[in-house]
Amino acid sequence: MCLGIPGKVIETFERDAMPMAKVEFGGIVKETCLAYTPEVQVGDYVIVHVGFAISRIDEAEAQEIFSCLREIEAAVEGPE
Amino acid sequence: MKYLDEYRDAEACKRWIEAIRRRITRPWTMMEVCGGQTHSIVRFGLDELLPPELTLIHGPGCPVCVTPVEILDVAMAIAAMPGVTFCSFGDMLRVPGSRQDLLRVKSAGGDVRIVYSPIDAVAIAQKHPERQVVFFAVGFETTAPANAMAVLQAARLGLENFSMLVSHVLVPPAIRGVLESPNCRVQGFLAPGHVCAVMGTEEYRPIAAEYRVPIVVTGFEPLDILQGVWQCLNQLEEGRAEVEIQYSRAVRPEGNPRAMDAIREVFEPVARKWRGIGEIPASGLGLRPAYARFDAQNRFPIPPIAAEEPAECMAGEILQGHRCPRECPAFAVRCTPERPLGAPMVSAEGACAAYYRYRR
């Protein structure tokens, strides 16, 4: 139920005064409501849940998991 | 797909597991709250790869599973009425009520439709003014903004043929419920990432402080879960009990304020009965009086139905993490996704469905 899929915003538009977007998920394009993330722009990635973008993906934070792992491993191995 | 594939990288998973193995000094038990996380753990076998000192138990985070049988019976009674178009997320159709499920109502001629978004149900109401369109609004905080927007839109369009059968539930009261249970074994939580993308982390701080449990807001891919476990483990080993965000690419501490405003505009906290668990005060959302005209339970008064639970189903024990699906004598014998005794065998987030699919 809480499934959220990351997708890329490829077009933004308005319908009945509602901010909308076309969002691509690995080749499939779906219309998505941007009422809760009106700041997103074409090229941004968003998490989409039941037709609504609930969050914009932060690219810098997305990389943190990989640098964090390297830091942990470096700390275990200690200085050379 | 970007933001999915890289978080499923097997090599990086092994390195996280090795880091966890080196760090752990004694047995710990954590609960992943969300059924989406449970499916990821069982599907990728993370629980079997983690060191034996670490136990992951599966939480109540499956809205389909906890929807009370009384509401399901009401849903089926409304869906069977002539002139009604009953819209639902696909997950709900096979969930057993006292006597049948929505799929059987449909095959008997009821107009039951699966929709992708609550907005689709509003569009159906707009297009068919001669039908009474009812949307089955279930879900946690993640789904509440979408359902709130459907009500706001129906109000703006002046739709008199749209209503909602609301059975929304909230995560923080469920976590408190787990911690209050006398059999509680949970020492730390992986909290649900998408729920917190909407609501933020503020409500979790008093829980971490009061019960002295670490709470790590975690994503859904294997690397997310392993990093969530790592952060939770570090807190346990260091004797800390704080709220941390692992899933920081999608979750900000303040959540999504616009989405929260819409929820507060349309809904208010209400007591809610959880299937298999019982009533928890202020654990759900109901429509505010200003939007009561969209409440399907007001529009279609249904006489009380004596709800019956199958005696053999131990869904309540499973939803609270006291038992594992494989301990159930009916599992994969008298209870299968095609002929389920209880909701956890049906839902895409149900623990029993995960074990049936990946561990048989």
Q: Could you characterize the architecture of this molecule?
A:
The complex is a heterodimer of chains A (80) and B (360). With 80 residues, chain A is of the alpha+beta class. Chain A has a single domain, classed as SH3 type barrels, CATH 2.30.30. Helices cover 24% and strands 44% of the residues of chain A. Chain A has one helix at 59-77; strands at residues 5-15, 18-25, 28-33, 45-49, 52-56. Chain A has a 5-stranded antiparallel β-sheet, with no helix packed on it. Chain A starts with a strand and ends with a helix. Chain B is of the alpha/beta class. Chain B has 2 domains: 1-302, HypD, alpha/beta domain 2 (Rossmann fold); 315-358, no CATH class. Chain B contains 16 helices and 11 strands. Chain B starts with 9 loop residues before the first helix and ends with a helix. In chain B, 54% of the residues are buried. At the A-B interface, strand 4, strand 5 and helix 1 of A face helix 1, helix 7, helix 8, helix 10 and helix 12 of B.
In summary, what is this structure?
The complex is a heterodimer of chains A (80) and B (360). With 80 residues, chain A is α+β, with helices and mostly antiparallel strands.
